[in-house]
Amino acid sequence: MQQADHSPSGWEFVASREAAASLIGATLELDPDERITRSELATAAEVPMKRLYLEDTVSELVDLGVLEAVESESEPVYTVNDDSDVLAAAARFEEIATERLAAD
Questions:
Q1: Phi-psi region for residue 8, left (φ > 0), alpha (ψ -120 to 50) or beta?
Q2: Predicted TM-score (pTM) of this structure
Q3: Residue-wise pLDDT tens digits, 15-43
Q4: What is the C-alpha to C-alpha distance for residues 14 and 31, in angstroms, rounded to an integer?
Q5: Where are the domains of the chain?
């Protein structure tokens, strides 16, 4: 039975967008004070630029509060939102999963 007003969950977001997990992982490593372009994000996440444009994952990460768009006269520029609850949860997941995988 399918719901008419189905909203995607956080896990569905990550699973359905090829670049999402890599981009979130990359944001955990970036300096929150540094301004970064889509091209630099793609490089940091090891994701092809074409993938970022096809999926528009960067804009969705802005909507989720992981990244913040910064005023720029040229191409779009972003910073990591150091106060993001989503990013804090991703960092905690990374920490716990890494510890448990290392214990195996």
A1: beta
A2: 0.85
A3: 888 899 999 999 999 999 999 999 999 99
A4: 22
A5: 10-103
- Residue 42: alpha-carbon gap to chain centroid: 11
**CA 13, chain centre distance (Å):** 10
* Residues facing 69 on adjacent strands: 78
- CATH architecture for segment(s) 10-103: Orthogonal Bundle (1.10)
Secondary structure of the chain in HEC code, one letter for each residue: CCCCCCCCCHHHHHHHCCCHHHHHHHHHHCCCCCCEEHHHHHHHHCCCHHHHHHHCHHHHHHHHCCEEEECCCCCCEEEECCCCHHHHHHHHHHHHHHHHHHHC
